[in-house]
Amino acid sequence: MKLLVFLGTVRDSTPPKPARLGARVSAAALDCLSSQYSEHEVELIDALDYPPEPVFKPHFAYAKGRAPSRLDELAQKIDDADGFIMISPEYNHSMSPALANLLNHFGSSLFAYKPSAIVTYSAGQWGGMRAAVAMRTFLSELGCLPVSAMIHVPKAQEVFAQDSRLQEGEEKNSWYKYFGRTFNQLIWWAQAAKTQRTELDPHQMIGNFTKQPSERNAP
Ligand SMILES: Cc1cc2nc3c(=O)[nH]c(=O)nc-3n(C[C@H](O)[C@H](O)[C@H](O)COP(=O)(O)O)c2cc1C
Question: Which architecture characterizes domain 2-216 according to CATH?
């Protein structure tokens, strides 16, 4: 399976401390995937590498072949992927606006009929739970339905050190087993969806709306 791991933090400064805690979480997720799921192709998409333009213009707003090459390349990666892992901090009980902004650049037809997994974290005690609940709605609308298991890392700075290694007293096996429940669900669904996409092209069968979301309205 081809999996894209989106990292949604672009905060590279304090306060509050620590900054870019998400880099520790994504490093752990990537380490878990490379050590326990090495048969799958995994690529990190870091929102920091896609700074927002002053005026929002999504990939699908450009005439074919006229979008900036970085957007075109990412659109192709999303199209080629079989599943997505979305890693987000919680800001004011919501998902990262940088992650939402990056994902908003691409039409749902690129994400649809492939599963996603939600990973949230925070410096506080709830591990981004409130952001995660809202992410379910967001990702469902994109068509990459989130699997039921989710990963939440409360007080992530107490779990992962600055070099992303587990802090003393934290059990790698326990954390990777916890991650694995979500990743196993994701891979199961990704494989099932891939098989079914080859059997029956959902874009042909269901049809993507091409001009207006109202194309799917009730009569
Ligand atoms: C604008 C802002 C809002 C925040 N809101 C929350 C919140 O609602 N819940 C929470 O647990 N932590 C919240 N925090 C603290 C973050 O969990 C903490 O700063 C964490 O390091 C963010 O991840 P990042 O460093 O990868 O950006 C907030 C931080 C910022 C900067």
Answer: 3-Layer(aba) Sandwich (3.40)
